[in-house]
Design a protein that fits this description.
The protein has about 500 residues and is of the alpha/beta class. The protein has helices spanning about 20-30, 65-70, 125-130, 145-160, 165-170, 175-185, 190-200, 205-215, 220-240, 245-260, 290-300, 315-335, 350-380, 415-430, 445-450, 455-470, 485-500; strands at about 35-40, 55-60, 75-80, 90-95, 105-110, 115, 120-125, 135, 140, 270, 275-280, 305-310, 385-390, 435-440, 480. The chain is built from 17 helices and 15 strands.
Length: about 500
């Protein structure tokens, strides 16, 4: 094991207190595995909060034992593609703190890679020096403040010299990055040149390091940023074993690709080994929107997450035209006081053309829902987590299922056009299969009405009553009591989603 040195910078101690992380540290040290851990500089975190992204450096022979320990603790493996492992041997895992419900992301290295994970990683061959110079910071072994500052410096240069930052003119550090820089400012804060020359002579170029250090001031021009990024990429490629001529050409190619195709980097995201649809169903007043927003904020920073709305799917051109015609009819009804839309849509006093339009609108809505379901399934197959607001269920007749039965009372029965449209609506709903996780927010109808007292009670109460009276025990649904506090609902939803991953 490493010598129990004490860190010169104790400001990180409060960041190593996550329950899952502490448990992992105990397991590693119990098996005498040499490691070094530090908060990831690639993570975007709010100022003042504890870190939830950590980098672990271990020796190559210890990779498999570490992987076995992490999986035994309930962590989930993430990837950048359909394969189980990400590029350059970087393993990514997601953990869950059962006490707080919060998530923890770990990146395990045997080779120290910096840059964009899964895209353009650059090798910095100082693993042995980092492991040998690791210091004790509370419960964990972490790298010295000089190495932390060096890794932070190189990561910021690679990030802010990229094409997407240049195009968006993101020339200044975020609040978290400024806070990180302040924490890394030590009496030896400007010892990067000494550290680099000692640990990695191949990148010890004084002019390049001076240009990198100027990044910390945030006053460099765009041209200087691009040139400094190119110089750092070239030196890192040389330290990876490339010849100077090859490293120079590859660095220019990477820099040109970043500037010409700046948004290409956003296409590769951290994915689940197996994607899923999480559908949250409930009436108005059950707290669906708040629950979905909390779930999205909770997990979207860690894995590829998409939010869809089955109740209001994106309209096709035909759906938009029919919707505009119906709105025009409602406007005409208000101006001329005809009373067409006061009575139920199926009433025979409503002109035949509008009854056909309402029936056609239901069919087109079913098609729009099938389209959004197909897109969601495509995302799931690529490893995304899709959070759905509402979902078509046979148990619920008043929300997202077939609606044509409300508008089929025509004068002449049977009507071949009506029969055709009814068949088409049912046909569009058939391919929509149940989600991997179905959550029903069940709220008392009186509570739902109180929460939405400023809205149409005649619409809210029947929907809430339908959800309340449905027997969900014979379905795959997980019923959550939406009458309880928001904090308890959030915790229960997080536990359900994590158990499904």
């Amino acid at each position: 094991m490493q010598d129990a040195k004490t860190s010169e910078n104790s400001s990180y101690t409060n960041q190593f207190t996550d329950q899952a992380l502490v448990q992992l540290i105990h397991e590693l040290e119990a098996k005498s595995i040499v490691y070094c851990c530090w908060p990831s500089v690639r993570a975007t975190r709010s100022q003042g909060t504890s870190a939830t992204f950590f980098d672990f450096l271990v020796r190559q022979p210890d990779i498999q034992p570490v992987k076995a320990i992490i999986l035994s603790l309930g962590f989930k493996e993430l990837t950048f593609s359909k394969e189980k492992s990400s590029n350059d041997g970087v393993l990514t895992y997601l953990g869950h703190n059962s006490d707080s419900g919060e998530l923890l992301c770990l990146r395990i290295y045997s080779k120290l890679m910096i840059g964009d994970p899964g895209l353009k990683n650059y090798y910095l061959p100082i693993e042995t020096q980092i492991l040998e110079s690791a210091v004790r910071d509370g419960l964990v072994m972490t790298c010295s403040s000089e190495i932390k500052r060096l890794l932070f410096l190189f990561s910021m240069v690679l990030k802010y010299s990229s094409g997407i930052c240049v195009l968006k003119r993101q020339l200044r550090f975020s609040k978290w990055e400024m806070n990180e820089l302040d924490q890394l400012t030590t009496p030896r804060a400007h010892a990067e040149k000494e550290v680099v020359s000692q640990y990695s002579p191949s990148v010890a170029d004084e002019a390049m390091l001076d240009n990198c250090l100027s990044f910390l001031s945030g006053d460099t021009s765009i041209r200087s940023r691009i040139q400094t990024g190119y110089q750092l990429r070239k030196h890192l490629l040389i330290s990876s074993g490339f010849s100077p001529s090859v490293a120079k050409s590859r660095a220019w190619r990477h820099q040109a690709a970043d500037c010409l195709f700046p948004f290409r980097a956003t296409t590769k995201q951290v994915r689940l080994a197996k994607g899923a649809i999480v559908a949250i169903v409930g009436s108005d007043g059950a707290g669906k929107s708040t629950a979905i927003e909390n779930l999205y904020d909770w997990i979207s920073g860690y894995v590829w997450t998409k939010h869809i709305h089955f109740g209001k799917p994106p309209r096709s051109i035909c759906s938009s035209l029919v919707h505009m015609m119906i709105r025009a009819g409602r406007l005409f009804d208000r101006i001329m006081n005809t009373g067409w839309f006061v009575t139920p849509v199926a009433d025979i006093t409503v002109p035949l053309v509008f009854r056909y339009l309402f029936l056609l609108q239901s069919v087109l809505l079913a098609r729009d829902r099938q389209n959004i379901y197909r897109k969601a399934r495509k995302l799931v197959n690529n490893g995304a987590l899709v959070i759905s607001d509402r979902f078509p269920l046979p148990q619920l007749k008043l929300m997202d299922g077939p609606q044509s039965a409300k508008v089929i009372e025509f004068k002449k029965q049977p009507d071949k056009l009506v029969d055709f449209l009814l068949r088409m609506e049912r046909k569009y709903y058939v391919p929509i299969q149940l989600p991997e996780l179905l959550i029903v927010l069940r709220v008392d109808p009186d509570v739902a009405v109180q929460r939405r007292s400023d809205e149409n009670i005649a619409l809210i109460r029947p929907r809430a009553q339908e959800v309340w009276d449905t027997d969900w025990e014979k379905t795959i649904a997980h019923v959550v009591d939406a009458n309880q506090s928001i904090a308890k609902i959030k915790f229960e939803l997080k536990s359900l989603v994590w158990s499904m991953l």
